[in-house]
C-alpha cells in the first residue's frame, strides 16, 4: 500500500475494460447548500434541478486525466449533491456513511450536512463502525492482492499495479480508512459509473461520482473521523 498503491476486491472496471473482479478489499437549506448544488429546498422545477446538476457534474478538463461530464440521466435526482438538514452529535468535518440509504454525509455544523449519493457494499459485504481517514490518494495505483490473482488469473496483468487513470477502479481520488493504526482495506473512492449510484455492488467500499469525490476529498484532511452506520 506504500507509494499511493491501493489493493482492491470485487470491482466493476469502468468503461470498455469494465468487468467484475473478485477482490476482498475493494468493497471496501443554506448558502453552503446553494454553493454545493443550489438544491437546498429552493429549486422550483425539474428543469432547474437538471440544469444545476449538469453544471455540478460537468467535465473537469484540468484534471491530470480529464474527467468527462456525468451522464446525469443515469442518476436518480435524489442522489445529486446537496446541502440538507442533518442532526447529529458528530463534530463538523465528520463523514457519515449511510449504506442503507446510499448516502454519504459531510457534517457542516449547525444541523446541516453536505449529502452525496453513493454505491456501497452488496449483501454479505456490508459493515459498520467507526474509522478514520489514514491516507489520501490522487489517481492511485490499483494493485490486486495475491489472493485475488489466484482466484482470478485475468488480474495477473495488474500484479505490479494498474497506473492511475480513468479506467483505474479507484478513480481520481481515494480516502483510505483505518482503525487503530491499521488499514481496514476499505476506501471511499471515485466512481465513473453513474448507473451504480444507489446500489450495492462492492465488497464494502463506498463510491461517489468523481465530481462528488473530488469535492469531498478537498474538504477532508487525514485523521477525519468516518462513521459507517448499520443498515
Automatic annotation (TrEMBL):
Transmembrane segments: none annotated. Pathway: Cell wall biogenesis; peptidoglycan biosynthesis. Residues 93-229 form the L,D-TPase catalytic domain. InterPro entries: LD-transpeptidase, LD_TPept_cat_dom, TAT_signal, Transpep_catalytic_dom. Keywords: Cell shape, Cell wall biogenesis/degradation, Glycosyltransferase, Hydrolase, Peptidoglycan synthesis, Transferase. Belongs to the YkuD family. This is L,D-TPase catalytic domain-containing protein. It comes from Methylobacterium trifolii.
Amino acid at each position: 500500500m506504500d507509494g499511493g498503491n491501493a489493493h482492491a476486491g470485487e470491482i466493476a472496471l469502468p468503461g470498455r475494460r469494465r468487468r467484475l473482479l473478485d477482490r476482498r478489499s475493494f468493497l471496501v437549506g443554506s448558502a453552503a447548500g446553494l454553493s454545493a448544488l443550489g438544491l437546498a429546498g429552493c429549486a422550483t422545477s425539474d428543469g432547474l434541478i437538471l440544469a444545476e446538476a449538469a453544471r455540478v457534474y460537468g467535465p473537469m478538463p484540468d484534471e491530470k486525466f480529464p474527467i468527462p461530464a456525468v451522464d446525469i440521466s443515469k442518476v436518480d435526482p435524489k442522489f445529486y449533491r446537496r446541502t440538507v438538514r442533518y442532526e447529529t452529535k458528530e463534530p463538523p468535518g465528520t463523514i457519515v456513511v449511510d449504506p442503507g440509504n446510499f448516502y454519504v454525509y459531510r457534517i457542516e455544523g449547525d444541523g446541516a450536512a453536505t449529502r452525496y449519493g453513493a454505491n456501497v457494499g452488496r449483501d454479505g459485504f456490508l459493515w459498520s463502525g467507526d474509522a478514520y481517514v489514514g491516507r489520501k490518494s490522487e489517481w492511485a495505483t490499483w494493485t490486486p492482492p495475491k489472493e485475488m490473482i489466484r482466484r482470478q488469473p485475468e488480474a495477473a496483468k495488474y500484479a505490479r499495479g494498474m497506473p492511475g487513470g480513468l479506467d483505474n477502479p479507484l478513480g481520481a481520488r481515494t480516502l483510505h480508512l483505518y482503525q487503530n493504526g491499521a488499514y481496514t482495506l476499505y476506501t471511499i473512492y471515485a466512481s465513473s459509473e453513474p448507473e451504480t449510484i444507489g446500489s450495492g455492488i462492492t465488497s464494502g467500499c463506498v463510491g461517489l461520482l468523481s465530481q462528488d469525490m473530488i469535492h469531498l476529498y478537498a474538504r477532508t484532511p487525514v485523521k477525519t473521523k468516518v462513521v459507517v452506520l448499520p443498515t
